[in-house]
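INTERNAL AUDIT FORM
Audit reference: QA-55
Scope: verify that the stored structure record matches its stored sequence.
Auditor: D.O.
Record contents follow.
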Amino acid sequence: MKNLITIVCFLLISKSSYSQNDPKNFEVLPPQLVLHLPFNGNALDASGYNNHPSIVNASLTQDRFGFQNSAYKFNGVNNYIEIPNSSSLSYFQGITLSTWVYIDQWYGNTFAPLIAKSTNSGYGMFGMMLLKNSEELEVRLNGTLANHNYTFFANQWYFVTFTWDGFVCRYYVNGLQRGQRNFVGNFDWNNMPLRIGMDTPEITEYLNGKLDDVRIYNDAVSASFIDSLYHLNPTLIDPISVEVPKSFSLFQNYPNPFNPSTYIRFDIQKQGFVKLKVFDLLGKEIKTLVNESLQPGTYETNFDATDLTTGIYIYRLETEGFSDTKRMVLIK
């Protein structure tokens, strides 16, 4: 059965100047990933900003690829994820919100909250939700609406993305732009926690469904970048930033020690063929994580050691003119 749904993204944006407690100027930087919840066996933040959440009754479930313990399920009654306020989640040049969502049932037959940094009395700083009772993609900015017709179907995964660059709001479903709205203003900063699967203005609403791969960037990312996120699959590395790094780098894996999986991040300064491999201490190759040509950028990949024993392992990044090796510790 299909459902006609409204996607609502709300930013409480002030047209007045910043308060004394707000930053006066922003250095223009490429968008940075400030929250990434890939839900690979846990809800830890993989952005590097340590915005780790608390899980309130929600439970791990199967993701869109059929992998167990790789998404979170919410029951529509009292399940949500909460992340404490932090500077990385408070001061933005613009914003990108994105997540995969699967709706089981509508809260009050109407609402499906996804991401919200709201207050008990208003929409707060930003947020995104789905509404069933309209045949529109809808943005809400201080009561201003931007609409676009879109039809969703029940019991399917959708990749929903919202961007705002300080001038234009854009809405994407499954990697394609579905609507936009001009809007100029500044964020109304607050120190409220960020909630996933729950929204609190006036009546508290809960998500009844699943979420996976929740991301927040501190500015608007490009349409091509959103398309690349939509087409990610478990065998691909994850592009983290579109900024061209100043040098090649291989970072320490995190978490470390780990069990059973960990993330490895690296910078590619110029286009070339890249290899990232894992070895044991005897030099035996365990797994090839990357073996392809990559554009300049920052990348991240997940190493799953479920089938390996406790010990020290080595990972090595090789590309034209650069090679680096680091150690990681698996503890079971």
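Auditor finding: record pair retrieved intact. The chain has two domains: 2-230, 238-330.
Action required: none
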